[in-house]
Automatic annotation (TrEMBL):
Superkingdom in the source lineage: Eukaryota
Lineage: Eukaryota, Viridiplantae, Streptophyta, Embryophyta, Tracheophyta
Species for this entry: Amborella trichopoda
InterPro entries from the UniProt entry: MFS_trans_sf, MOT2/MFSD5
GO CC terms of this entry: membrane
Record GO terms (molecular function): molybdate ion transmembrane transporter activity
Protein name, UniProt field: Major facilitator superfamily (MFS) profile domain-containing protein
Amino acid sequence: MGVVIQNQVWEPPPWLNLFLFSSSFVSIFGFTFFSNNANPSTAFDLGSSHSLSSIFLRFQRTFLAIYSLVSVLEGLQSVYGEVEYSYYGFTRDQMFMVVLYGFIVCTSVGTFLGFFASSMDQKKACVICCIFHLVASVLKGLAKLPLLSSICSAIASFVFSYSFEAWMVSEIEKLGFRRDSLNEMFWLMTFWESVALIGSQVIANWLISGNIENGVVFPSAVAAYMAIACLICIGKGWKTSVFTSVSKSHEMAFSPPILIDKRVYLLGVAQACVHFALTIFWLLWTPTIVADGREVNMGMIYPCLLGARMLGSTAFPWMVTGPFSIRTEDYVIMAFAVAGVMLFVPAFDYQEIWFLVAVFCIFHACVGFILPSLARLRSLFVPNDHRAAMMSMYHAVASCMVLLVLGVDFYVWKLGNACIMGMAVVGLFAAGFCIYNLRKPQQDHRSL
């Protein structure tokens, strides 16, 4: 009896995206309705509430618009992945070397810029991020230098991971808004970043128009124009002033709290473990799904993952200021545990595609919940003047961990995807253990 092999490309059901996106907006509108009924007065009760509300809303909309625009820029620089390198004739070994060089350079340069941002105006780091994106776009689209372009793009992504959060927190502090304002910004940043990344995929698909050559060149040109627009918006959006002297800030960037404070250390290790797990996931999610030669439309799964992250981010305000009001350390531990279990399943055994997509969506929902939670914990335990330096330093630790794993897998001993995914699982559980140690009563918590 012959075996008939159906050569059918698997795609997620259309209702999955609809469910994730509609659930996200239902969660947002539901929380808004609950907040208005629970506290009819405005959250800005610092005297002239109406004027403060308008000031904050103007700041919030301006910042989120700039942040979303840079997030689209981030997505355009990395939307094609291996396809782009294949277009330039790179082999698998050469692709690995490009990734290796990118990690090495961005770790060293990005960490230095993080300390630079802490000792100078936070706004300058955001400008540097956009400049590197502009240079990467020019090198890719005009000069046809994909290696240098990838390195510049990696540096820009590294700086992006901490610069805008540090800038936003410093502005919130100077404007004098309350804690609820800062918590709201954290989850909105995660939400709109996910929306922007989906938008970058839509733009890239429209630009490619069935021609891979156009798809590689046109996004670079669009990214260059967007980088220029971001620079203009950052420069003219609003004026900032350095609230500490340069010499004092320079000393504070390297002062003991960021290096020896146990709470900062635990929070930094948790952040490094999250970055490590996310990097491993984005490196292995495609080969995990297409194992055994299965044909899958990855472009339809990617929005599902980001939609799940959007949904997870909308759960954050419910837990912090909503009807639950659970301590941050408690619920983020549960999120780490669930995320670790979700990655353990594909690392442990072969699974069907639909099951892998479901597991990965749950994982990203946890990530959408974890990211603003860690940002809130940073505001509790890390002085604002140290935030960029702390985030860049532990992000560099995560990059070094990834470099070590990839180097061993490529040069020393073939680890296998399951083993590497298992390391990401260990990292998530380790992050949960670090947050667990923050549950102990602490003195001198910083007020927001």
